[in-house]
Amino acid sequence: MNRRPLVFLYKDTGEKMGMITKVITKRNWEIAKTTGEINEESLIKEGFIHCSLLNQALKVAQKHFSHEEDVLLLTIDPSLLKAEIKYELASNGQKYPHVYGVINVDAIVDVVPFPKEKGEFILLEVQS
User: Fold this and answer.
1) Among 9, 52, 60, 96, fewest CB within 10 Å belongs to which?
2) What is the distance, to the nearest Å, from the Cα of residue 10 to the centroid of all Cα atoms in its chain?
3) Which Pfam family, any one, appears in the UniProt record (predicted)?
4) Opening angle at CA 70, ends 115 and 124, nearest 5
5) 12: confidence class by pLDDT, cuts 50, 70, 90
6) What are the pLDDT digits (tens) for 85-94?
7) pLDDT by residue (tens digit) across 36-49?
8) CA nearest 76: which of 44, 42, 101?
9) Residues facing 111 on adjacent strands
10) Which residues contact 49 (CB under 8 A, 6 or more apart)?
11) Interatomic CA distance for residues 52 and 87, integer angstroms
12) Domains and CATH numbers, the chain
């Protein structure tokens, strides 16, 4: 998989747009590769799939995936997503990217392991 920069420019306006990330279990990633899309229960319950910015991914993993062992961090190119993204305020005061539809796997530009050290997730170096 070719690595792409985490920040690039919108084609039409030249504004900076950052990549978004998705924390996912290896099991669910294998399913997504087979079906061609990431589809989660939150899409039915809340109307969107939760994603994060790179600087938010560690806290997301600790909070929601602490009981999991085989976890991956996906990098998503927003310009390749078929569904709409909205950056919305969460209860912690930060804005998170929410994808209002399934995530097409061809929008995933990088997949890296999200390992734990002493029970805590650690971010491996992400190439930019």
Assistant:
1) 9
2) 19
3) DUF952
4) 25
5) very low
6) 999 998 889 9
7) 999 999 999 999 99
8) 101
9) 74
10) 22, 38, 39, 40, 42, 43, 98, 99, 101, 102, 103
11) 9
12) 7-121 (3.20.170.20)
